Structure formats: C-alpha cells, structure tokens
Amino acid sequence: MGHFSISDLENISGIKAHTIRMWEQRYGILQPERTHTNIRTYCDDDLRRLLNVATLCGQGHRISKIAQLSEQELASAVISCCQDPHDFGRQIQALLAATLEMNEPQLCKVFDGAIRQLGFEDAIMHVAYPFLQRIGLLWQTGSINPAQEHLVTNIIRQKIVAGTDRLPPVLPSESRRWVLYLPEGELHELALLFMNYALRARGQHVLYLGQNLPAAELAAVCKVYNPHLVCTVMTAVPERAQVQSYIDELAVLCAGTTLVLYGPLMNSQSLTLPANAYHPKLMTDFLGFVDTLQDEQSA
User: Fold this and answer.
1) In the sheet where 277-278 sits, what is the strand order?
2) Could you give all domains of the chain from N- to C-terminal order, each with its CATH number?
C-alpha cells in the first residue's frame, strides 16, 4: 500500500503541509520514514491517523490533547463527534478513515446519520459525492486497494437502491416517461442510480435498464415505451474517439425524444450535440433541469 509524500497528505486530508510538519515535530502525531535523500515518506497508518486528527481538530479539540490519545481512543472520539448534519468535512474525513480501515459498520453509521439528518438527496449530494471524489484521489495515489473501493461503492449503491425502493410508485400515464441506461460495456452505475432516485422522488416514471445495454436495443424500447426522455451516463465507454459517433447514433435511434447525456466522457472533449440533446455538466445541473421540466408540467 501507499508511501505518501507530505504533499500527498495535504491533498488527501486538506491539512496544509506546514501544519502537518508542526504537528509531527511538536506532538509526534506522525512517524514518517526518510529516504536516503532525507525526504519524509508516510504510510497508510500515518494517513489514517492524520484524517482522524483532522476530524477532531475541526470539532475544536486541542491538538495537544488529541496527541495523547491512543489509536482506539482516537477512533472512538471521531465516531462520537460526527453528529453535526451540516459539517460535511468531518463526515467525509470520518468516511475516509473508515474506508482505510475497511470498517463497514462505521461507514454505514456515518452514511445513515447523514441521511437521517439531512434527507436522502442532500446526504448524497453533500456527503457521498464529495467523499467519492476523495476516494478517486486516493485511488490515483495508490493509497486504497480494489477491495476498499468496492466496499465503498457497494455500500453507497445499497443505500441508493434502498432509498429508491421506499418511494411511492408512479404510473407512466401520470408523468413524463424516462429511460435510463448505461452503454454496452459501461459498468459505473452510481450516478445513474442516483438519477433514478431523483426522478422518481420528483414523480417521474422511469424505465431503468441499468448497465451494459447495446445501443441497437433502444429503438425497440422507444417504440414500445414511447419515452419523453432517454438518459445515459458515459464514464469509461465508449472509447473517447467514438463518443461523437455514439451520440449521433442515439439521435437516430431515439428520434422524437430528448437525450440527456451525462458523464466524464461528455465533459472531456468538444462535441457537437444534436438538436434533441441536453448535456448537464454537473449533477446539480441535471437536478435543475428536471425541476424546470416539473415546473413546466405543472404550469
């Protein structure tokens, strides 16, 4: 696992490098090794401890007191302090520390507390999404392994599916009809699952087709279901050079519907959108678009 520079710790934890050095020198918070050129290197345990220490400092605890805590006392103090529903930073740091420890009960406890206190949608937008961005950074720096990333992804997936199941049913005749799917070979489902929740929570009817749908199937789906909108998320598929041709194909297959095209592949290049397509750059843009459609429907 990871060997981190002090700049890595700064980027992951949000604590400035000079503060980390001060905590290390004055209070012995971290115990870095040094290379033959005298450069500090930090291990996974250092990162976990720094995240926990940062969480408690954000709560107002004095660093001199925190430095005296054992690892168990430190973890217990972090668990007890993450109760403020609007302190997203502490909640995210607690989730990061729990991920590195593969502490599934603590991950669930923080998520459930945020959902209970903020409401489901705000908990996803303000806690889960920024947390997943941090997880991406940890993955880039090699500081989490696939098992840890899968643990986090599956917990969030379970929360979204459970939240969606609790919503009341909507008849296709009573609202706009949406088709949600991922392109063939695309498996990154969390954004699409949350879109499914958000649409159903707003009284929209969704035909959720999930992962790995061949584009050719959409023509038959549109003919039978007659959706108003077709939405997909492109994270890793199709190949970057094929995104434009894929969009052009969708415009033909789904003629007469509005295409909603979301995901990193849409943001990373200059694309020409057909007249019936909309590209929300952020999830907040997508939610605003849906709310606008609702207002138009109610008018």
Assistant:
1) 205-213, 177-183, 229-233, 258-262, 277-278
2) 6-164 (1.10.1660), 172-298 (3.40.50.280)
